[in-house]
Design brief:
elongated, 5 helices, 106 residues, mainly alpha
Length: 106
């Protein structure tokens, strides 16, 4: 696929890919700008060790944002980003008591 085809804004899938990739950048900035708050938040969500989880999330978000924006292995980085988002959603739901632990996959 040529460079022009990857950034052709008349293709709705390119627009969606760029939006998803660029959305990760402010999320990454918010997470990395106040690490002590992020560590506390991950502790509240019972993700231990919080520094390991934060570091892995930052690395995954950098890889996913780069891959989505530059169209590098788009399908794989989108799938990995989806798994990461799912993990976060399950953690929040478990912390709030919205999902019982035995039904964490829902």
């Amino acid at each position: 696929m040529s460079l022009y085809q990857n950034f052709d804004l008349t293709n709705e899938f390119n627009i969606l890919r760029l939006i998803c990739g660029l959305f990760l950048l402010p999320h990454l900035y918010a997470k990395a700008s106040n690490l002590e708050f992020t560590y506390k938040l991950y502790r509240d969500f019972r993700l231990y060790p919080p520094r390991g989880w934060v570091f892995s999330c930052i690395v995954i978000e950098i890889i996913c944002a780069t891959g989505m924006v530059l169209a590098i292995y788009t399908r794989y980085v989108a799938a990995r980003g989806g798994v990461s988002v799912r993990r976060g959603l399950v953690s929040v739901a478990l912390q709030r008591g919205e999902v019982a632990l035995e039904h964490w996959w829902l």
